[in-house]
């Protein structure tokens, strides 16, 4: 049976005639696109199901943002699509992806790199389908929808401020788990590719921080979602920090020039502490004690065991890494408790920006994309973010030849010093908890690199070896 024939179609309820904009109910649409998507989706950087065959698709919703049958220009089709793949867990749900597809009779040369394919049959037969974000005409349609908030088919657009017209869009080609458009160096729109029910923390937390007057995060200007009992956050528009450089680039430049990075590391520690303070005020959470500590350790242990199955190179280190987690349980049994709150969730140098005046901002509050959304929205000890940044300094140091572990150690210390200056609490004062979170982060990195960047796998594996030996000592 062909992929198209095996495709399951669950159409969204029509709200408008498909000759105009709005939801479309053409039952032949998805089967006609399925053969193209079957080949195109697994090649995308943001597709999370690599290494597993795609066995079918189910349509969640289809919205014509620009009519597909028009003659004046390209059509724009918004899809929410469940991708069926075999899973090790019987309870695992199929991933839902957001696609924005342009439709033209043929592609101009400038859009050749965005090609999805030519449709052979169905309502779009003979037309060419492509990734619409690469088309400036269609990218501008998205910004126009933010200027006129409200509903369009199965989509709802919201904004908090005026958005000027005439901003030229361009797509960012950086390797990401989502897609981003920059409009005239004034705004950046993040399009979430794999979407989950519930408010995405990349919208929730910046809104909360803005409400607390925290200036360390660009305030959301607009967003769009698929409404429902648990809305799906689809994209967030924020100010674009023109001329800012991310911490990863700055750290590598310092390494290449043989310079210390200590003032910047301290400033990053202060910025992190300020964000944590504002989040704790905006979204207060009780302390981590007893049963919650055991649950935290159980989750870390489960992730370790799953990672060892996925990456056999981890197996020899599992006993030592498990001992690191057990040390936290032992302290909890003896009555120790720790602060917990909403945190960034995936903090590293690449998630920070320094503007021309030296001011540091934190961005991308989505959390680790591989984790389920409910897990990413759970409170955690602030040292989870600290551990992520400490791992990032190690990553940076290992890109330089010869490896400079002293550079990383000095940056790690300076970052903790800056954090302590702003918060009054030195994260190194909770060594067992910090080491456990650094271990958990390194385990996550091993799985991520094994799946997406195998050449980088030695970096987290070196940390795994160090942390396992430290636990055994």
Automatic annotation (TrEMBL):
Source organism's superkingdom? Bacteria
This entry's Enzyme Commission designation comes to: 2.7.1.175
Keywords from the named record: ATP-binding, Carbohydrate metabolism, Glycogen biosynthesis, Glycogen metabolism, Kinase, Nucleotide-binding, Transferase
Q: Which InterPro entries match?
A: Kinase-like_dom_sf, Mak_N_cap
Enumerate the residue ranges of region (Disordered): 1-26
Kindly name one Pfam family recorded for this protein.
Mak_N_cap
User: Which catalysed reactions does the entry list for this protein?
Assistant: D-maltose + ATP = alpha-maltose 1-phosphate + ADP + H(+)
Q: Which GO terms describe its biological process?
A: glycogen biosynthetic process
Polar residues bias locations: 14-26
GO terms assigned for molecular function: ATP binding; kinase activity
Biochemical pathway: Glycan biosynthesis; glycogen biosynthesis
Q: Where is the Maltokinase N-terminal cap domain?
A: 40-135
Q: How does it assemble?
A: Monomer.
Family from the record:
Belongs to the aminoglycoside phosphotransferase family.
| Name of the molecule in the record | Maltokinase
Q: Which organism is it from?
A: Streptomyces globisporus
């Amino acid at each position: 049976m062909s992929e198209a024939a095996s495709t399951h179609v669950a159409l969204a309820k029509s709200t408008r005639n498909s000759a105009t904009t709005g939801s479309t109910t053409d039952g032949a649409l998805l089967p006609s696109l399925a053969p193209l998507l079957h080949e195109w989706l697994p090649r995308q950087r943001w597709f999370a199901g690599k290494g597993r065959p795609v066995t079918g698709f189910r349509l969640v919703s289809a919205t014509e943002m620009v009519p597909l049958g028009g003659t004046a220009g390209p059509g724009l089709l918004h899809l929410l699509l469940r991708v069926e793949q075999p899973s090790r867990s019987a309870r695992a749900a199929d991933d839902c992806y957001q696609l924005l597809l342009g439709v033209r009779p043929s592609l101009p040369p400038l859009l050749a790199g965005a090609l999805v394919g030519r449709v052979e049959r169905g309502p779009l037969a003979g037309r060419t389908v492509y990734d619409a974000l690469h088309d400036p005409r269609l990218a501008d349609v998205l910004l126009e929808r933010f200027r006129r908030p409200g509903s369009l088919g199965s989509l709802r657009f919201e904004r908090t401020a005026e958005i000027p017209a005439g901003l030229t869009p361009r797509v960012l080609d950086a390797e990401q788990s989502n897609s981003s458009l920059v409009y005239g160096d004034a705004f950046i729109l993040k399009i979430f590719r794999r979407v989950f029910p519930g408010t995405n923390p990349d919208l929730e937390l910046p809104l909360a921080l803005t409400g607390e007057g925290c200036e360390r995060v660009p305030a959301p200007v607009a967003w769009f979602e698929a409404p429902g009992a648990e809305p799906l956050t689809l994209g967030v528009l924020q100010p674009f920090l023109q001329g800012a450089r991310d911490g990863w680039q700055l750290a590598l430049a310092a390494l290449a020039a043989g310079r210390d990075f200590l003032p910047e590391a301290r400033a990053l520690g202060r910025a992190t502490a300020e964000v944590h303070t504002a989040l704790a005020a905006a979204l207060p959470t009780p302390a981590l004690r007893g049963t919650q500590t055991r649950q935290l350790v159980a989750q870390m242990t489960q992730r370790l065991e799953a990672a060892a199955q996925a990456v056999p190179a981890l197996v020899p280190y599992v006993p030592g890494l498990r001992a690191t987690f057990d040390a936290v349980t032992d302290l909890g049994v003896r009555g120790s408790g720790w602060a917990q709150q909403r945190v960034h969730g995936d903090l590293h140098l690449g998630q920070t920006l320094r503007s021309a005046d030296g001011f540091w901002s934190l961005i991308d509050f989505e959390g680790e994309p591989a984790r389920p959304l409910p897990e990413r929205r759970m409170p955690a000890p602030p040292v989870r973010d600290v551990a992520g940044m400490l791992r990032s300094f190690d990553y940076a140091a290992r890109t330089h030849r010869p490896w400079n572990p002293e550079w990383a150690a000095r940056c790690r210390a300076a970052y903790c010093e800056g954090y302590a200056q702003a918060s009054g609490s030195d994260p190194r004062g909770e060594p067992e908890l910090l080491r456990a979170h650094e271990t958990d982060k390194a385990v996550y990195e091993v799985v991520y690199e094994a799946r997406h960047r195998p050449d980088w796998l030695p970096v987290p594996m070196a940390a795994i070896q160090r942390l396992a030996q430290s636990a055994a000592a």
